[in-house]
Amino acid sequence: MRKFNKTKIKAALLLLFICSGLSAQDLPTIANTFLGSLSKELRDKTMFALEDSERFNMNYVPITRQGVTFHDFNEVQKTAALKLLRASLGEEGYRKSKEIMELEKVLRIIENNDRTMPDGRPRRDPLNYHFCIFGQPSANEPWGWRFEGHHLSLNFTSTEGILSSATPTFFGTNPGIVRSTKYKGKEVLKKEATLGFALVNSMSKEQMKTVLFSNVAPNDIITLTKRKVGELEKVGIPFSKLSESQKATFMELLELYLSNYEENFAQGFREKIKKSGIDNLSFAWAGSLTPGKGHYFRIHGPTLLIEYDNTQNNANHVHTVVRDLTNDYGEDVLKRHYEKDHQH
């Protein structure tokens, strides 16, 4: 069994804070700098073909994964890896990522969990987050990359040197609110919960007939790890049926999710959602209308799905995901890219 190295954990988490001041830069250059810092053995573990089925192997539970982790890196490699992560996310997304990783230390304490993965590493491990790159990072050709581990699955696709897709985006927290240890009171996804409850509890009795589609929340996000979302039941209240104050809360919640993304990508995603019609978005709720019992909400429209579920561990275990219904894993932009190449 590999020893749980507290010094390495502290060093990696310190680097997360050091890198938090980085702004979005030239993504292919940053990715190639990261790859150039690796030995051949580590590069071979990191790189996959863009068409490899591994790119769609999204998961957010503790399993054995492909790719290199912080356990494999020296300090130079850690810094290069985290620069890639920071350049791919907005400030909020980066904050949530590092705090979700930190929660692994909380789980290890409160569960008194010494179980190990098949590779001998601890089951609860803030260093066990994996980097995979799909294709060769390039300003001209498409490529992608993924950062994934327990309660994180961040999937990126780049075409023409910029992010063209950053979904599926999964964040999870367990505990949702930390009840003990030195992290007591920590709630990584607090704003999502606060705005969701504020919106649902602002509804009139008549509106609630449309908003509340079930008195029992599903026990997880409905889309799970599916490559394609497929058809979902049309439930909830349309944006157009909200009052002005409710619309403001709805938009604040939507913007909170968009703030997870790198600024330029967030702006493009925002414009895409608006183009498909804000009035075509709906808000739906299931389960308890107060914290402490299982609850679920979603925002759903022609191009967008946001799910938030808090039911497990006595409603103190959150899963939330963003899906681009037309371009998860960059499939739409890649299709257009290859069609353009074929025409040439």
TrEMBL record:
- Pfam name, any one: DUF3500
Which UniProt keywords are given for this protein, alphabetically ordered? Signal
Signal peptide positions are 1-24
Coiled coil stretches, renumbered? none
Does the keyword Transcription regulation feature in the UniProt annotation?
Answer: no
Reply yes or no: does the keyword Signal apply: yes
Q: What is this protein called?
A: DUF3500 domain-containing protein
